[in-house]
Fold each of these.
Amino acid sequence: MSQAVFRMAVRLRLAQSASAAFGLVAVLIMVGALFPAVGDAIGELDLPEGVADLLGGADYGTITGWYRGEISSVYGPLVAGGIAIVAASASTAGEEADRILALILAHPVSRAGLVAAKAAAVAAGVLIVAVATWVGLIAGVAVAGGGIGVGNLGAYALHLAFFGFASGAVALAIGAGTGRRGLATGGAAAFAVLGFLINGFAPLVDAIAWLKYISPFYYYAENDPLSNGVEPLDLLVLGLFALAMTAIAMLGLQRRDLRA
Amino acid sequence: MYPAIETNGLSKDYGSGHGLFDLDLRIERGEVFGFLGPNGAGKSTTMRLLLDLVRPTAGSASILGLDARADSREIRRRVGFLPGDLALYPKLTGMEMLDHLAELRGHPDRGLRDSLAERFDAELDRPIHELSSGNRQKIGLIQAFMHDPELLILDEPIAGLDPLVQASFHGLLAEVSARNRTVFLSSHTLSEVERVTHRIAILRRGRLVVVDSLENLRQIAIQHLEIEFTAPVPAEEFAGLPGVREAKADGSQLTVAFEGSADLIVKAAAAHEVRAIRARENDLEEIFLRYYREEAGS
């Protein structure tokens, strides 16, 4: 891995990651502040099974259900996945489209080393968001009156980080393999949205219930880390998937011409 | 001693007649070699092939005795490259960009960089997005030269530079050449290569048209004589002479364009009272256009 490429990639995305992190902390505290007044009033919604699953169980009457519905089901993965996908698409395909990559690769940097450095930088950006999520949740839950342990909040942030790694790695693989930023962003976003829908609806039909296992959302949320803590096997699956996608990205960039 | 660049049948076929075809080229160490051709002739493609940014569909290339594909990383350590469509990180200052590129090479020595910046009067403390194209090009030149590479591959190096900086750049080329560094530069600005190169190659539609020294090319180029008579002389007397391409009379002045020997023209002129004869120096523009037209017509 090229450390110089890694440092520059982190630097170029730092403002974006930091602003997302500050925004997340603010939102998570605000959500916690709303719980005493709103969460208790809503209670548990009586929704069809699939829809309730999409909303993290739709149980707004408990602090765990409240954060699961408000943050864990959509908002958290949207921010972490979005940050990862945008950063990963910009890092190789974006720099190639902007014509900077040709200058960088005219230096003694291997293509595989460059991809590894870019992947590590995307992971660093996601980790910043995950740490901010943890801090924001600790503060938010405290404002709401407590009810979720710091360990479980950290477990959720960890699952969120691994979901971000997986989403970003898909964008990296598409971007490095094609050199097309739009395709990388759109393809990875489609992958995430499809995963969300498959995880929510596939279990409703027995014949295709197994499809949930191909969704990154399953490994991100199924174990409910806010309630049950870390599930190492889920993190292992997401981590291995991200590594496999990064390896595909290395091969993809290695095997092709840089676009003019 | 191995040459700085050697290609054998190097080809990159993009389809529809675009790309580079069967390039055989040998550039010796210490040469300043000009690569000429109109836009889309394949100059940039050649340079990108040499640096392994694109891969050949046929043929091979060796740089500094190393295989352009297998030893690409070592080659890139020893080569300085200025892309024709230079792009830099816009939010960085010139200094930060150069620091980053030096770091990629593991070459933190700032002495040469600072002297180049002074030589080109480069603005390194402002964000790149605030710089003019000429000032960005200066940063591009500094990064190509700042590690004192054995080979410089420069794609349209004087694009956007003012005449003073161009002169400074030409002086730098002479200096690095004197230290046995090799320069491979492309241009469609003919006056640029005419001033600084030892040999040139002309490329058209991806194929090499000619490789030769400027001296030899000038000898085979169309030459011009301006003859001033004491009285008007009919141009037809000269237009039919062997080797004469064109004869134009303007009052008592006659301009003759010809190939080969001027002997018959001078003898024909001697039949009249001649006040003065001037030979106009052949420039590369005419050589270039001649090859261009021949190819276009073939």
Amino acid sequence: MSTTVKTPVADPPGSPGQRWRLPSSAEAAVSPVAIVVGCLVVLALAWFAFTPYYLYLTVLTAFACIGAAALNLQMGYTGLVSIGNAGFMAVGAFTAVWADHFGGLLAGVLAGGVAAGIVGLLVGAVAMRLRGFYLVLSTLALQFVVAFAGQEIEQALNKPAGFILPIPSAGPWQLGSDRSWLMFALILLAIELIVIHLIMRGRLGRAFLAIREHENAAGVVGVNVALHKMLSSGISAAMIGVGGAGLAYYIGNVDYSTYTLDLAVSYAAMVLIGGLGSKYGPLLGAALVTLLPALLSALDSGSSAGYFTQHASSIDLLVYGLLIIVIVIVEPGGLAVLLRRLTDPVGRQLARIVRGTGS
Amino acid sequence: MTIRHVLSSYRIPALLATAAVLAATACSSSSGGSSQSSSSSSGSSSSSAGAYTVGADTSLSGPLAFIGTALAAGAKEYFDYVNAHGGINGHKVNFVTTDDTGSVNTALTNAHQLVQQDQVSAMTGWILTNIESAVQPYAERESVPMVTQGCDSTVATSSSKVVFCVGLPETLEDQPLVDFAATKVGGSTPKIAVLDMDSQAQIALQAKIVNDVKAKGWPVVLKQIVSLTATDETAQANAVVQSGATMVIGSLDSEREQLFVQALRSAGSKIPVVNFDAGATFATLQKLADPDLFVYSPFAFPTDTGTGVAAFDQESQSSGQQPGTAYLVNGWVEAMAVGAGLAKCGYPCPGSKLMTAMSGLGQINSQGMTTGPFKYTSDFYLGLSGGKFYTWDGSGKKLVAVSGFMPIDAS
Amino acid sequence: MNLLTDIWRIVVLGVIAGGIYAPVSAGLVIVYRSSRLLNFAQGALCFTGGYAYYLCADKIGMPVGAAIPAALVIAGALGLLIYFLLVSPVVGRGPIIAIMVTIALSSVLEAAVFLIFGSGQQYVQNPFSSHGVRLPGNVVVTPLDLAIVIGSVVILTALAAVLRFTPFGVAVRAVSDSPLLAGYWGQNSTRVIAWTWALSSALSAVAGMAYAMNSVLDSGMLTLGTLVFPAVILGGMDSLGGAILGSLLLGLAVQSTTLYLGAQWSDFVIYGALMLLLLVRPYGFFGTREVVRL
């Protein structure tokens, strides 16, 4: 069904060759049917089967997926490293605070996306000629600049605890309960994944993949590398901004201290752990990273207070760091590949059964 | 599309869905809101007769860890003490702590966990105002009271019925500071230097202090804002000396207070320093041993008398804490407030019942742990309404009160 | 008159700050030259170095004269460990992997230290008196400050000499220029690169100890690593001299922004300057221009 092409190695000499499976771009992103099915399944589960606490965690995961999938567009599909995503979330959130006065939730989220997208285009323009570490540093610089801007805004407007976003009502719909928040987040996520699918299926997506595989060759065959780098950064930033604005509404509070470098790194970790440039990778990674603290504390249930609760945050940090290292060294394809390894035999078996009974 | 195509395309989501359903049914059937992740702090005996559960959501790591760990330790000591003396209404208290790592998202997640998983009656230990602001709407929705020592004006004056303060809002401390300074003035007109730290609330406090000083007809010869993380105060001390000030009025926390006073005395100046309540840490004052340093304190010191103080000292020592540690006493009194509420509430006491009980408490007998009245009513959620000024008594090696009760202007 | 005292103050404090930044930058450069990666865990190495000193001097109770070298040895060993476990598996796999691995390393190191030693801040033994000399212009300089500056100068001069004159230094330069050719000449590049990591960790440990003695041993030190990135870029990622100069300029820049604008501006100004630098001259002033192979 798919063509597996082993591209020639484009690494510096002496390195173990990287075997990229270059997907046909149509297959690169999650298909719309799978998106809708997945969202409905999650929604049904959460609605009927989850406790309020798991429901809350699912909402957080959904918002994390929005950011991770967007970052995957830039880092995974276009090969541009970025740890500036917390800055884009902050831009989205702060813009939402301003735009909320004009049109409530929808205006806030939309304006947040547009503003973040514009910043993303600008950053993309600045970083056009930069590669590798220099590119990362430019995104790191963005982080500090945005954090500072947020701090100054809060001081100027006398908001030491940040801004409060009111509980939104999008039309006749009051977003008060976690269930309605989950619906909202899943709708945003579904729209985003469909957009990514459409992008990757078309010329834009092919250009992104070409840039990732071999930037100079892409330029030679006629891809406008500079423009597409800008677009990748801008589109990715816009979606991250939407996610940031949505999450800000959910939390209810916008403060510059939320958007730290650690937050940015956690999103990069989601993409990496899930599998850079894979379909389901960012979603799997987002789920794991978001649920990790809850998982770890659940594992500890039953033991008495003291070591674990005292050191919960250090243990989280340790496991999280080790996970990244292990995934990178052992299975660079991330969770997506691991999962594929598990499900491949089952899928093949199922297919064999079906074939046996006639198709 | 053949069935084979369908199967191979959707195997991953299908498998995930199946796994998720299995996991969800397993989890939701077994948990049902039991306190499986709660950790009993009373140590020895199991909770046979059913126990109250109280939670803390505070910074156990990061730069504010010294505050959070002390608040949690102080509260734990109090509940240990209570549990060892028959509990509240015959029931023990389970105290659960969570670490918010200074992050709003983590704090909110912890709050969800405490309320939904552990089913706490109240949450204590709050430090940062942005975290409090973020959690407050959730606490209101769930009707679980928040007991906090971080009471800047926005939290204290909000019409929320869910936040109970155990601390003085910084911006309201100006009047007692200046009024006390007036008692130290003697004959001539003093020249005042005002030093405060770099936070929104304290910059506002400085403006108020300056106004109050000018209203008394005294000149302000120096105003300084000190960084919250400053590790050196010699520049400020020199500036004070050079300005010719005869008294310093300020709002420095214990660290900065220590650095500043030491630097000031090394520079040869003996002028009195009048400082607000965050400088009222026994350990710091003991180290400075300065009879010209006067701090405003709503809480008692370990060297005071009172049954509560004796219990606090003893409990601290048996759990390996120095009673003079910063914020330890704050944690104890926070727990005391919750305890008083639980006693009135009866058993079981879900958050909503506790809220009603606490707002109807009236005066709480703090057993000498507070230097003034300690009360909650339906109009008054601040708990404390002021304090006394203390200074070091070299001969008795303790802190003595040098003023009567001086209230803040809480109107 | 006022401007003069301001400048004096900036210069004195800036040089002292530069004395802490310089070893960190040097560590970054050395590792970049040998492994071609930007080490996001450099700040964490300062942190572990400081704690190694705390372990030796305060916990075990060694005299300071023994504790400092002991801490350096521990730091060096840690550097070797990091190279063999973490760096050699990911060599050559591109910037994304290298960055994420070093960031993950930073998290692991930070978490491990907190789990072993507890998460509060610690005070360490300071062998230098903190009784300062008040210089004109209200600037106080302590013996510790002097030790930091002199120590940095000595260590970095020694480092430069090692790189230029000793066989090891020649090997490092050969390996960083071309591992293949170095291999032909009989250099065991793995061993050389491993030692550069040990050296880099030890350099960071020096900075970590200096920071801890100067104020307090806490997680604020972790930002040292990212703070010196602009200094290293300015000087060129593979130039030791450039990094040292950059550190000095960074120290001056931080002090001037703190003095004139306030401490909260310093991150913004430094990183804003970095942005501009990346636009105009990403290879810095002393670095070698990278030729991109097609």
Amino acid sequence: MLPGELTADAFRGYPPQARQIAAAQVALLRELPISFLPLLLRELISYDWKFPAERKELDNQFAYLTSQTPAARRQLMGGFAKLSVAAELERSDWVNAPAQFSEQLTTHLWATHQIDIFHSAAVDYVGTIHAAAPREPLPVARLGIVILGEGVAENRYRLFRKLRPHGMYFSNVTQGNGARLLLEVAADRARAHGKPYGHWFINGGAEVEPPAGLTCLSYHALTAVRTTLQEKMQRAFSSGMGPEAFRTMLAKLRPEELGPGTSDDPVLSRFQVSVLTEGSGTQIFSTTFVQWAAREALRRAEPLTILAHFGPRQRMRPMNELLAETQHKPEFDPQGSLVDADMGAYYTWLNQQRLDGAEQASFLVWFEGHNEAVAIAASMAPGAESKDPVSLESLVKQVLLPA
Amino acid sequence: MPEGQENIPHLLNELIPRATFFTQVVNRGILGHYVATASLATGVYETFNNFAAVPPDHPTVFEYFRRDLKRPATDAWVVAPSNGFNRIGESGHRSYGRGLGAGVILPKRLLAAALSSGSGQQYEHLLRDNYETPLYAPELSGNEIELHEMAEVLRLSVTDFATHARTLASPDELSVYIARHLMRQLSPSLLWITLHDVDIAHSGTYSLYLEAIQRTDRLCGEIWKTIQSEPEYTGKTTMFILPDFGRDSDNDPGGNGFQHHRTGDALSRTTWMMAMGPGIRENVVIERQLESTDLVPTLGAVLGFQTPLSQGKPAAEVV
């Protein structure tokens, strides 16, 4: 099918809200090129389980596209329209399986050396939509907090080397019950600036009872789900399933197929499953889980607060141990996890800075149980260092000072 | 010291001072490991499915080498991870192809066979070396050698092989171990070694990625030392080292930094190459841009064979 042949009935397999939007926009959808439309539908088909920020972004896209004249739309779509798409792809069921189409299109674009043209068109399109979107002031400046180093007794790795140039390094932080303190800071912000999915706690460390008001994601709480998923992956491997079919299988998994353990909230449970099925390594390594979940939460939910707590991941056993044919108890690798988390903290900051309000946003990363931290905020001189004693509580207050 | 260089002391201190070093080698092809390595081996940007066990469409450097110089099958070898690389030894090109390629040794696959045959236990986990799609291992149908052939060709008993493997920390160490045996037993003129441990980056664990970089650095140094210590190689061997491509930039929002190579941004496409050996200038840095496809015609110029279907150009600085 080509876009020009679309009717509202083509979307009867979509969830209710997505179907309603598609039916209302079918005239617009008919105009869009085949190299773009399924990518838009890939977002639309999951509208019913999207976060408010994502829904708003999609609504803005439709509002902008419909506000343009046909000539302006053609110009906006020009980069996509000049891509050649294989006839086989055009004939595929891209309306009902837009994610599969997207994967196959990516493969086709790489193979035909069109991927750079596609990227350029996508960047232009996103830039145009973003520039046209109405701006609303944030109720409070964004705050990112990362806790790392659980279980590390002694460290020789130079921490925060990528974050120090952007903020102030503190080498004499007194902490007390720092993790609980930072959790309460996040919870206080959730209470003061209530917003659905606006304040997150992503935990790869020891299980804690999170305060109310935070959207929580825990690696350990998802143990049963991860186990079920790994069993499914193992069965797929044993059956000789190829990589494309394997990815399709993962992409189609619904929370109910992974047994109990996911959230009762359908939006959050879908998110939990997507973190485990779309993120490489998230099923196995808690550090990867926290980093990827934080990335996806920031990208998709655009929270005002994110607290990411990295704990120790399992140790990767070298080949000679794997071949020893003896059962080993799972072991943790606190030092390796610290290095993972250090990079994870940097990526979390980078992802926070990609959101609106980056100039006012602040960020704190703390080496749990030790005296080191980096604070990035208007009140902190980039690249500076302080050896003076400072409590974590005081540091938080300084970070939260308005720009 | 620039960031990251502390992880590659052997390349920096032992190899680069002896090498002509190209700082910009751009890969304009598909950034998947098998298809990109096949492109390096053919000098043409191959476009087949990265995850399919298919031969390259264009003639490989091994076929050019053997046909032009009339070399026997024992004179060109590939040692590679088991991820689809079994077909890299020879192309599907009708003018070259069958019978003209390199022998392929997949040490991990041999190890899995060696261990399973002794114990009845399955070691299929050894074959899961594709960290991006972690549970994929393609069916074999190429010209890779079997376990009994390895024992015969390398004069290495299956027991000794398995025993030694049990002392090694990683698949790349196993590959280098096998490469050394090849050099001692067959002394091939053309030996291609693909190291793959660094792809653990796909698991998102930066510390394991750093460890793999450090190990690869050490193994490159060990390969060069082996060349210098083996009578059949010392003083008459050129070594080229290059990555197949890079990894995504931290700053591209479409990627996730070091973890993948999906964006096609400049960092994921741009790497480097070093060449060292007799007649090659030492401690020279070349800033001009090369393409990945230039490797095959460069090898042709160094060894004296034609590479007519390659798209690249010889690197004049080393030929």
